[in-house]
Specification:
One of its GO terms (molecular function) is protein-lysine N-methyltransferase activity. Helix 11 packs across helix 12 and helix 16 runs antiparallel to helix 17. The protein is α+β, with helices and mostly antiparallel strands. It contains 18 helices and 15 strands. The structure holds S-adenosylmethionine.
């Protein structure tokens, strides 16, 4: 029998929703999914048709700066809220509401989680399980704390602590919606200066407002299992089905096609259904360091001699000019929409390997970067495979070791999620190595031929297995690759 008040909190929330004017289709119910590790969720209690309204929520019941500022007197706090980033203002509002005994949103705030598994809350030790995943650098905990100090502490929000700030800000990251801002509706008229307010984001064509939307945020998600969507076209916000849903099925929203690293960072969970969206990053700084710091070992005992720093910089500058330079590149699972290795990364490596004559032709705009099939030369493939193998080595364990570790029964929950993330990234790297190794484009313009690059003579063998020319001058003219 339940002793923690979970069901009572759900019941109070349902009753509050009704008072708040939320109309709920009787064919759904809120379900306790804690035993599956996903808190509450929404389930179809009867068959639902396609495009059926699951529930509708008056915009006044959304918790956002528009609806809450009405209760805050004009003054410095109000100005401060209007002038801070939207997620911080919403954090302040939620903390402020949660401290008012008569808050309009009390029953809603009671169903929000007390604990999260998003990466902000992981210990240093837990984070080490993510090994070389770049997600660790994206958590931004220190940056968030600096923002809390700058924007939230001066508000004097009563009982507040860094932990509370993190908890509320993280809930916003996992629960809030950016909904279209109704500039002409009545509810906005009370908010002076709202049009210029940075709390209203400009997402291209439409302005949006960051909002907590009760019940809409009770829908879980599982990659492409989404079968519902929040529609903001009508007066009320409506959750509608996007396909027929059978009785007993869970109703899923869509959190986006996120790699599991980002799913874990933002939502604190992972499922295998997100594996196709996994991404592994390779940074330009690591690529350039490998290409300049020593001979790079390619397959079959071949070596790629390093470029001088100055030469590498020259080629990088050209990559920038050609708009193929990035701080890092995303490798993905090859799918119908694209290959594992992005064109820009191919172009970056191609420019690093191009012979002097061809390089100069691009520099002087006599020729331009070729299409992907020509960028994908055998040498570019070999170099990329070697670079990605170096990236693989930054992870402490191999794919096979992770697969075995994941079979172990006693792995803690967070460790298991970290293993799934790092294993997913290693599988992407493996797929990218395979793709790179399959490149067969001609090496004609690569620095193997008659380039005039003034490079020092280098050691090793040619990619086609020919021996290096012994004549030093000739060797110099043959360029960097030996
Ligand atoms: C928008 S809320 C959904 C409602 C949430 N289950 C609750 O009880 O408050 C998002 C959070 O739900 C959980 N969640 C959503 N989908 C999940 C899934 N497929 N598996 C596990 N947890 C999930 C995660 O904790 C996530 O941060």
């Amino acid at each position: 029998m339940e002793t923690d008040g979970f069901q009572a909190t759900t019941d109070a929330f349902i009753s509050w929703l009704s008072d708040a004017g939320v109309r709920i289709n009787p064919k759904i119910r809120i379900e306790d999914f804690r035993s599956d590790g996903r808190g509450r969720g929404v389930v179809a209690a009867a068959d639902l048709a396609e495009d059926e309204v699951i529930f509708s929520i008056p915009r006044t019941s959304a918790l956002n700066i528009n609806n809450s500022l009405a209760g805050i007197d004009a003054g410095s706090s109000r100005d401060a809220l209007l002038n801070m980033p939207s997620w911080l203002a919403l954090t302040a509002l939620i903390i402020s509401e949660s401290q008012q005994s008569n808050s309009k949103w009390a029953a809603y705030l009671a169903v929000l989680p007390r604990q999260l598994d998003t990466l902000t809350f992981w210990s240093e030790l837990e984070l080490t399980e993510l090994q070389a995943s770049t997600v660790v650098k994206k958590i931004g905990k220190a940056g968030a704390e600096a923002m809390f100090s700058q924007h939230l502490l001066p508000l004097g929000l009563g009982e507040s602590s860094t932990d509370l700030f993190h908890r509320v800000a993280s809930i916003i990251m996992a629960y809030a919606f950016d909904i279209p801002y109704e500039a002409d509706s009545e509810q906005q008229t009370g908010t002076a200066g709202a049009e210029d307010d940075e709390l209203v984001s400009d997402n291209g064509d439409e302005k949006t407002i960051l909002s907590m939307i009760p019940l809409a945020d009770m829908l879980n998600a599982d990659a492409d299992r989404n079968n519902a969507r929040l529609c903001c076209d009508n007066e009320d916000l409506e959750m509608r089905t996007i396909k027929p849903i059978s009785k007993g099925e869970e109703i899923f929203n869509d959190y986006g096609q996120l790699p599991r690293s980002d799913l874990l960072r933002r939502y604190g969970y992972v499922t295998d259904n997100y594996a196709p969206y996994d991404v592994a990053e390779i940074s330009t700084s690591s690529i350039m360091s490998a290409l300049t710091s020593g001979p790079l070992k390619l397959g079959e005992g071949q070596l790629l001699q390093p470029l001088s720093e100055m030469e590498a910089k020259r080629r990088l500058t050209l990559a920038e000019r050609e708009d193929v330079h990035d701080d890092s590149y995303d490798l993905i699972h090859p799918n119908t929409e694209g290959p594992a290795i992005p064109d820009e990364l191919l172009a970056l490596i191609y420019l690093q390997l191009l012979d002097e004559e061809s390089l100069r032709a691009i520099e002087t705009s006599q020729s331009s970067l070729p299409s992907r099939s020509k960028l994908a030369t055998e040498l570019v493939g070999q170099v990329l495979a070697a670079l990605i193998q170096l990236r693989e080595k930054e992870y402490a364990t191999s794919i096979e070791e992770d697969e075995n570790l994941l079979q172990t029964e006693s792995v803690p929950y967070r460790t298991k999620m970290a293993m799934q993330v790092r294993l997913g990234e290693k599988r992407v790297l493996r797929a990218a190595i395979q793709e790179a190794s399959s490149f067969t484009g001609s090496n004609k313009r690569m620095r193997t031929g008659q380039g005039s690059e003034p490079q020092p003579p280098a050691q090793g063998s040619l990619p086609n297995g020919k021996r290096q020319a012994e004549d030093t001058l000739k060797a110099k003219k043959k360029g960097r690759y030996r």
